[in-house]
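Researcher: Go.
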Amino acid sequence: MSSNVLKKRLLILGGNGYVGQNICHAALLQSDKYLVRSLSRSGPPSPSSTPPHLASSLEQVEWISGDVFDASARKDSMEGVDYVVSTIGAFGSNEFMQRICGDATIEAILTAKEAGVKKFGFVSSAQVYEGSAGLKIPESVPMHGYFQGKYRAEKELVRGFPNNHVILRPGFIYGPRAAGALGILPLHLLGAPLSFVGTGMGPVSKVIGRIPFVGKEMESMVPVDSVGRAMVESLGKEGEMDRGITLEAEDIRRF
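Model: Structure:
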């Protein structure tokens, strides 16, 4: 019997992006447990968009070029898949963000349900919780579509996979990020100090935490490798998911 029969098949939507690459990498560090494929419009990342420390892992990914809004592309990519993770998100007009941050994942959730996928993971936002400042942003203000799109996707995921979902709610995600001609952006040089100010300075951090919106962002910054590990390890918890899993930034940083 092939050892591949015993491995879980994991599909990453947007696996060639910053967060997606790191989730692929985290899964393939457990290559005895996972086979990984990715669906994205452009297929595999270019060499200039791949951090060197992830390159060998990403060579093991099955890259599929396709549009997540294409029902046949979604269906084909999910054939035989055990777990799906959506890392899809983008910035732009509010209408655009509603579509990319919300509708794309919602359509994927519906297809995954039909395809018999066992678990579905989603990288959401620290601002997506009932009563958050992010969800109170007026429709006319930038970022309304981003947070509302993520919020709608979370709601659909809980409906579609009530006992078998993993939701991560990070704020700013920092770490080495390949940016084409710009080279490697050391986002950790910004994110790590700010995260310490938001979480590790005792009374100062508590005061900052009370500032609407800003406080939540300051206390919710997380390393990108922790996001990858948190998603993969949470999906892999066999028999432990009876209500699904939602991890806030503090939980993610423990991975």
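Model: The mean pLDDT is 95.
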